[in-house]
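One chain shown below:
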Amino acid sequence: MSEHFLLLGLPFLPTGADSFAFQYKNLVSLLGAAGKDVCSFAVPNFKVGTLDSLIEASDELAKLDLQVENSLEKQITIMQEICEEPRDVVATLRFNQTQEMTPAAFVKGFQWSSAQFDSNESILGLVEKFANYFATTEEGVRLVMTKYNETRNKLTTVTRKAQGNLSVKPIRELVTMKNRSHPFIVDTELLTNLFVAVPLSSKREWLNEYWSLNDFVCPDSNCIIAEDSEFVLNSIVVFRRVLEDVKLACRKRRYIVRDSDAADEPSIRDLNDFIKRAESEKKNFGLVLRQRYTGCYVAWVHLKAVRLFVESLLKYGLPPRCISIFLQVDKRKEAEIRKKISQLYPDLSVPFSNTSSVEDGSLQYEYPYVSIKMTNLQRC
């Protein structure tokens, strides 16, 4: 897979009929073996306007071109994270549930969509529509990412609780089940239970010393509710009036006080249900982003078409007589085709700076014809 696509705008050849179809076939024939790598890129004849408007459109299109490419790159990175799929998969265009297409295939078969962008509108009007469309898409992606990050942060917290050890996971159900099999709950005007998660390594120390945390801790009141590979969940009976003092004494010894009656503590079942909903929501975020990415890419190709038209007019003048072609080739074949083109157009003036690549938002100035680079977003 080549790193870049190329869009070239070449003037009509001096021989043959004055039509795009004939000129394109003639060009492919004259290119010989290299012609098999050339694809037609259909560009409508837009309303030209004034020279000043063309220059303004050229500047605005150059800025937009670069902005949109950066936005598409960002969207691909986000989709890779959310969808957990490789770049070549997420960069595939998805028009609906059954229709998919690679970016290369779309550009090769590109047809201008007048329903989306009216080709009878002025070029500056189209530029404004592009800008508004991309701004709306960017805002949509931002909103999706905000919601996704909120869900992801909640999911991280919930997963930590649901799959964590006894120092963090919900204990209400554990306490209820233990009390059913071995009643230990004390709830009187004077006495109450205190639940403490003790590191497994400190289990013996706790059993020997818990009653000395305060004079009003009831001796022999410890009940082991549950145990995992890291913590032991204990219950002790204390006088209500010293409850906060006992909690403080536990924390000083790095024991973790747990609350089984926390109003906002969900059950383990609730946590598992939330995890399932969050995963489903994450999948939906991926689908929405793919739709926005596809729409943005399609609009980007339309922008490239307008840009190719504008730059060709500025280089070759009126009337618009340009052969627009698309290339997807490696560096070696690109060099062969460019050499052939130079032989077919010996009269095209060579730019002053033809020793190094100079670019303005993918427009390559070092060639005597219009050459616009288009990043292959599906590259590995």
Summary: The longest strand covers residues 191-199. Residues 4-152+277-349+363-375 form a domain with the subunit c (vma5p) of the yeast v-atpase, domain 2 fold (CATH 1.20.1460.10). The radius of gyration is 34 Å. The CA atoms of residues 6 and 373 lie 5 Å apart.
